[in-house]
Amino acid sequence: MRSTQTLSSRPAMFRALRHRNYRLFFFGQLISLTGTWMQSVAQGWLVLRLTDSPFLLGLVAAANSLPVLFLTLFAGTVADRFPKRRILLVTQSVAMILAATLAGLTLTGTVHISHVLILAFLLGCVNAFDAPARQAFTVEMVGREDLLNAIALNSSIFNGARTMGPAVAGIVVAWIGEGPAFLFNALSFGAVLASLSLMQLDARQANGMQRGNMLRAGLQYIASEPSVRALLLRAGAVSFFCFVHIPLLPIFARDILQIGAAGLGWLSAASGFGSLVAALTLAQLRDDAPRGKLLTTASLLCTHRS
Q: E-strand spans in the chain?
């Protein structure tokens, strides 16, 4: 009875946390994503230190992003056909190995820009399979009743890590170099792997698979739903026009603002903090809140800022 009362009294903003599996996922992801953002900031600074080239900064970012663009549709069908927890265990394990490899190369002083490019590309391939599986897994952890709240909390995890990770990475890189930041990222995957292993899923969730041509069905659904097409076009436009500055932040920090690696961390963290505030605000909105109007306003403000 006490447990029930505790769960029912949980603030609406955090109601998805009443599910044990989601609580494990929440804290495991928070630790792991903090390491991911540490690596992102440290990797940009490493590329600039090795090459002194803005072009190669952008090329590394492209190597990481293009696999996500071209493989995600196929990866979504894989997430429909295989148990999602199993997919996540594989993708997170491979990402851990890639981070450990970059840490080892950097700490031993043998890292080369070609290594960074290859590892960034491989990580992009991993992320292409990890993202759809992770997003679809959310409904298995919380059900449809708390799905919108869980999605908002997922955003708060991402942006909370996007605030903490870069700030810590900037300090670490400034004091002792990029290698320890990569090493922390590799170790942080242990948290999410442990959380996935400790989850208790019923047999239907653990083994449930969907058959048929899910890619064709998904494309047909997009073609038949104007609202979904509009959301995808808007997301693509915002990503293409509003976030192109992120890979070039190391140039701004070193050459324009002259604030060094620590300053780069704070620049990246500032953007994450704003997103975190917005995510926590969305988490406490009612399910019938005008999210479409909020999205339009945010997109216009982002475009105006750019």
A: none
